[in-house]
Design a protein that fits this description.
The structure holds two protein chains of two kinds. Chain A is an alpha+beta fold. Chain A is 46% helix and 20% strand. In chain A, the strands form three sheets. Chain A has a six-stranded mixed β-sheet, with helices on both faces. A five-stranded mixed β-sheet of chain A has the order 9-13-10-12-11, sandwiched between helices. Chain A has a two-stranded antiparallel sheet with strand order 4-5. In chain B, the strands form two sheets. Chain B has a five-stranded mixed β-sheet with strand order 1-5-2-4-3, with helices on both faces. Chain B has a five-stranded mixed β-sheet with strand order 6-10-7-9-8, sandwiched between helices. Classes of the chains: A alpha+beta, B alpha+beta.
Chain lengths: 412, 404
């Protein structure tokens, strides 16, 4: 297997940069990632995301227009613990780099531009809320992690969006946008000379835009889940949507890093619930589930969880069967080996997509992980270690469920 | 000689190839095609169970096999596409092109025509359809197209096909459909690190009647007839879905209807500087996103957005105004240049996507042409403001659909 060529540098200020070389690709990608996102502690929920929107505003206009002039597409996203600003382009990497630093490194918040953005973000939230699956996941998260930012959408609530002002944004910015909390990733067909020049330019730009600050240790408040384990919501849907949330303990307790634990749990879920599982075939034959469940494993500083989604005409039976399978996990060693093969294939497939490679590397860097270490970990991990981990973590987790069902009046 | 073209893969870790079978679009065909696709995605005669077939593919480094009908204007193309890790990437002696090709044809040539599988396929499609249409944006699209083709019902229900056929289709119907499918014109295209070897392995397998039939068709585009309609429907949702559909003459020169149409979509809603992004999102604050797309094979230019309920009229007015301004030759030339640049970039970076490369090969085979990416970029380069104006002048507002 060919190795990904990654060149890393850490500057005096603590700012980190990595360049990934992808020969023969036309597209290039550059991004600045911030170790701060929607579920981290902040004055108003949705603050990280509002900031992500508003950093594009500069005194001389929207900076994305300047990037646009270079034939470059710019965008940003906010996750639970990260914010990323990025650009994809073909030419002019040096100018793009400069603008990307200006984007993340300067602010221009006014009452007028903040108020205007409220309408846009309210519409973004409304767009998500129109998706029935959003309602299911929201119901699960509010009960798994009540009174935390995990319980709210990453965009915030309509009330928190309306409360946002320029002072709050500036405060959030100052607390989180500093050299040690940021890193840059570039990915594309760059020559040796370009790599050298790029690091020189990054060094100058990071010194110009970001100061060095001591990274404070975040204190995570202990939050207890709600006692309401099951919720039924009536909605305007034509088929019931089912959601199951598993609130898990910290992975460190089991001796695994967050990333390693996430990979193992994804393997367990694929073994038990994917279309190749005997469980799915039985559910299908019983007319309980017709398409495989969707699932994701998420780790955040505020808590770890799994969310599973599906649709069914027999939602109660489906939830009961998922729970039964989870409490009685049966995976063979052969299955475990096949899951390792699948993980390798997934990784190789991802290498064809410049954006995914760059974002994945940027996230790995924040977690101080590398793919080499992951492969090494999987190679040395025994089946019994894997099996013991997935069995015991599920045993120590809390399971929440939601059914989004057709409005009662529609049933008549 | 079978229709086959496998190109050289220089940079991807995966290879892709597929057989594409063409048949005329009608909603019965589409329903049958959807059911057969669901059946073949789940099981086959050599692998007669969902779990068994999925496991077999997973053992081959997660070989992906997708069977899906896609609508291209007046035609349905049945996609049988596989994407798999290039054997050179994993150096496993038991994993090679021969194994991949054998597994692929074992599955696609031997459908399991059995009642339990038919039942499972129908139930899957019905559940997926309900889930899909429960999202207001998808529901609005489906309704929009059903109104657009209200006078030609055969072209309605263009995602899942005829609902009655989906419900009532029997095993005999599917058997007849499979029989019919074998005589449908077929092409095989792909990209792989060793195209010669892959071609040698695939070619002898292309032995059904349709493989030697001419694949190209001259009647792909569906005309749009002037018959304006305005529809408003109610749904209990946070946003209003607004879709404005403009028709145009399908006999316009290709340069105008394809390339000018593409540039015009980027001029209106391509990125942050585009007219509607600035005016609808940034100035009116009415939407998070707005799209414009040129459906070349449907002679349709569609603009749509999820918008704040109180601003529907303002957004509608703004869209119509921007289209009108261009048709009156009032063009922002800087923005036009940017829209051209963006269109060219889409083609350039398309070379980094295996799927886009396959679609390009397929598009050429379908239209009986040899237009390379370079040719497409040159055509966009040569476009003038006048060409875009000409396209906008050919547009007539034919449908306004609103889901409140």
């Amino acid at each position: 297997m060919k190795k990904l060529e990654v060149i890393k540098k850490t500057f005096k200020s603590g700012f980190e940069a990595q360049i990934i070389r992808k020969p023969y690709f036309k597209k290039k990608f550059m991004g600045i990632i911030v170790d701060f996102g929607g579920s981290d502690d902040q004055k108003l929920c949705g603050g990280a995301h509002f900031l992500e929107h508003k950093l594009f505003a500069k005194k001389d206009g929207d900076i994305s227009l300047k990037l646009d002039e270079l034939g470059c597409e710019s965008n940003a996203f906010t996750t639970y613990n990260e914010t990323m600003f990025y650009a994809s382009f073909v030419d002019h990497w040096s100018k793009v780099l400069e603008l990307l630093f200006e984007l993340a490194g300067t602010t221009y918040f006014t009452e007028d531009n903040v108020n205007k953005e409220k309408n846009i973000i309210n519409q973004e939230l409304a767009m998500y809320q129109d998706d029935p699956e959003w309602k299911v996941n929201h119901s699960l998260l509010t009960r798994m992690f009540p009174k935390t930012n995990l319980a709210q959408d990453l965009t915030g609530t309509h009330a928190s969006i309306d409360q946002m002002d320029s002072e709050t944004l500036l405060e959030i910015y100052k607390n989180h946008y500093y050299a040690q909390n940021l890193s840059l990733v570039a990915c594309g067909d760059f020559s040796d000379y370009q790599v050298k020049k790029m690091f020189t330019q990054i060094n100058k730009l990071q010194a110009k835009y970001f100061t060095s600050q001591k990274k404070p240790k975040e204190v995570i408040k202990k939050v207890y889940p709600r006692k309401e384990m099951h919720q039924v919501i009536n909605d305007d849907v034509s088929i019931s949507q089912v959601g199951l949330g598993i609130r898990m303990p910290e992975f460190e307790k089991f001796g695994f890093s967050d990333l390693d634990a996430q990979i193992l749990l994804e393997m367990m879920l694929a073994s038990c619930f994917s279309s190749s599982s005997s469980w799915f075939e039985l559910e299908q034959k019983a007319d309980i589930l017709h398409s495989p469940l969707a699932y994701s494993v998420t780790y955040t500083r505020q808590g770890n969880f799994i969310i599973m989604n599906g649709v069914s005409n027999q939602p109660e039976n489906l939830l009961a069967d998922i729970k039964k399978e989870l409490t009685n996990i049966e995976i063979t060693e052969k299955e475990f080996e096949r899951q390792k093969k699948l993980f390798l294939a997934k990784y190789l497939r991802q290498l064809n997509d410049i954006d995914s490679v760059a974002i994945e590397q940027a996230e790995l860097n924040l977690d101080h992980e590398s793919m080499d270490e992951v492969f090494q970990f999987l190679q040395t991990l025994s089946f019994s270690e894997f099996y013991l981990f997935v069995k015991s973590i599920i045993r120590q987790s809390d399971i929440f469920t939601t059914i989004l069902e057709k409005n009662k009046r529609d049933k008549q | 000689m079978a229709n086959i073209q496998i190109e050289h893969n220089l940079k991807f870790t995966t290879a892709t190839f597929g057989c594409f079978l063409r048949m005329p679009l009608n909603k019965k065909n589409l329903a049958y095609a959807n059911i057969l696709a669901a059946m073949q995605n789940m099981a086959s005669t050599p692998y007669p169970g969902v779990s068994l077939q999925a496991k077999t593919l997973e053992e081959l480094y997660d070989m992906q096999l997708t069977v899906v009908p896609e609508v291209f204007g007046s035609q349905i193309l049945m996609f049988y596409v596989t994407s798999f890790v290039e054997p050179r990437e994993v150096l496993d002696p038991d994993y090679n092109y021969r194994t991949i090709v054998r597994t692929y044809f074992d599955i696609i040539k031997n459908p399991l025509l059995a009642d339990p599988l038919l039942h499972a396929a129908k139930e899957r499609i019905i559940a997926e359809k309900k889930q899909f249409l429960d999202v207001p944006e998808n529901y609005a699209y489906e309704k929009f197209f059903n109104y657009w083709y209200r006078k030609t019902p055969d072209w309605q229900n263009s995602t899942f096909g005829d609902p009655e056929t989906l419900k009532n289709c029997s095993l005999t119907d599917i058997k007849e459909f499979v029989h019919k499918l074998l005589s449908c014109p077929t092409v095989c295209v792909g990209i792989a690190q060793d195209p010669d070897l892959l071609t040698d392995l695939v070619q002898p397998e292309l032995d059904w009647a349709g493989c030697s039939a001419p694949f190209e068709t001259k009647n792909l585009s569906i005309p749009a007839h002037y018959a304006p309609i305005e529809e408003i429907q109610q749904k209990n949702s946070e946003q209003t879905q607004l879709l404005l559909g403009y028709g145009y003459d399908y006999q316009l020169p290709l340069k105008i209807r394809q390339f000018s149409g593409l540039v015009f979509s980027n001029y209106l809603a391509g990125d942050e500087s585009s007219k509607l992004f600035v005016n609808v999102r940034e100035k009116l604050g009415a939407a998070y996103a707005i799209d414009a797309a040129n459906y070349l094979n449907n002679s349709l230019f569609l603009i749509n957005a999820g918008i704040e309920k109180s601003k529907v009229e303002a957004v509608k007015k703004e869209i119509e105004e921007q289209v009108k301004l261009v048709s009156q030759n009032k063009v922002d030339e800087q923005l036009f240049k940017k829209a051209k640049q963006k269109t060219k970039k889409i083609y350039v970076v398309g070379q980094d996507s295996p799927d886009r490369q396959i679609l390009l090969l397929l598009s050429n085979a379908l239209k009986g042409q040899e237009v390379s990416l370079k040719d497409r970029i040159t055509m966009v380069d040569k476009l003038t403001v006048q060409n875009m104006v000409e396209f906008s002048q050919a547009l007539f507002l034919n449908e306004s659909y609103c889901l409140e």
